[in-house]
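Reopening this one. Same input as before:
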Amino acid sequence: MTYSVFKADVTGWRNHMVQAEFKMMDVPYLTPAFWSDQPIQEPLPLFMFHASRHAPKPDNFWTGGGFDLYAPKLLDLLTRAGVPYETFPAQVRDRKTGDLLRDDYRVFHLLARYPALDVAASWRESGAIYRLRLRPDVVVPVPMFRLDEQASLVLVHEEVKQLLEAHGVTGCRYIPIEAYQSGAHTILDQESID
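Same output, byte for byte:
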């Protein structure tokens, strides 16, 4: 069982972070629903994000919030890999003019959550994980899932990682389980923005 923590990569472009900034402040109540493994039943508004017109638009677009924003290429590969999910329409608009830049991105909701944390071998304190270890006996029937004990974490199987890398999917960061620490992998490296 080889998994990595799967995150949107925080990258820079011309001394700025590449980010699709969430612009709908009236729906913060949705973040816990997106960490659940149950389909969302209620009607949702169109998700709107703002980004720089000239900055790159990665396949896994970092939003800086509780929502994952994926391009069709990434979604197609996750479907091929057998990842259970649902999506919701989204628009990416120019942060200065409001002009529509892309309407093919989708807000991603992963429909898999499993208890896999090795509590005795992991080190958690005040909601943060300083050492992440999975139970050696756990068998997860899907290649990508949220960790039940820490729902903000998504784990992806090595085969899916290799599939995404082989197809040149952009914007993904894969952190080996043994190297993961809360917060340590979200800081933008200065080298990436120079």
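So the earlier flakiness isn't reproducible anymore. For the record, The CA atoms of residues 85 and 145 lie 10 Å apart.
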